[in-house]
Amino acid sequence: MALQRRQFLLLLGAGVGGVALWGARQPRQASGSALPFQPVRSTLPLPSDGLNPAEQRQAYRVVRVSDALELPPGYDQSLVASWGEPVGNSRFGFNNDYLALLPQGADRALLTVNFEYISALPWRQGFAAVVGRPLPYEAVVAGLQTSSSSWDVWSQPLQGPLAQQVDQLAREALIDQGVGVIALQRDANGGWQRDPGREDRRIHGLSGLDDPAQQLRSTGPATAVFRLSKRRGYDDGLGDRIIGTFANCAGGTTPWGTVLSAEENFQSQVPEAVHADGSAFPPSARPFQCSDRGIRGLGNPFGLAGNKYGWMVEVNPADPSDPGTKHTALGRFRHEAVAVAAKAGEPLVVYSGCDRRGGHLYRFVSDGSISDPNDPANSRLLAKGTLYGAVFNPDGSGSWRALRPETAVDPLPAPALLPHSNRARGGAERLNSEAQRQAYRERYRTLGDLYVGDGEAQLGALLIDAHLAANAAGITPTARPEDTVMDPQSGDLLVTFTSGLPGSDGTPDMAIFRGPQGQTPWNEGWIMRLTPGSADDFRWSMVATGGKPQDGGLGFANPDNLAVDPGGDLWMVTDIGTSTQNSDKNGGSFGNNSCWVIPTSGPQAGEALCFATGPVECELTGLALTPKGENLFLAVQHPGERHGTRTDRAEEARAFNLELSNGEPLEQLRWVPLGSNWPSGQDGAVPRPGVVVIHRRDRRPLLAPLS
Ligand code: FEO
Ligand code: CA
Ligand code: CA
Ligand code: CA
Question: Taking the complete model, does pTM exceed 0.85, yes or no?
Answer without folding.
Answer: yes
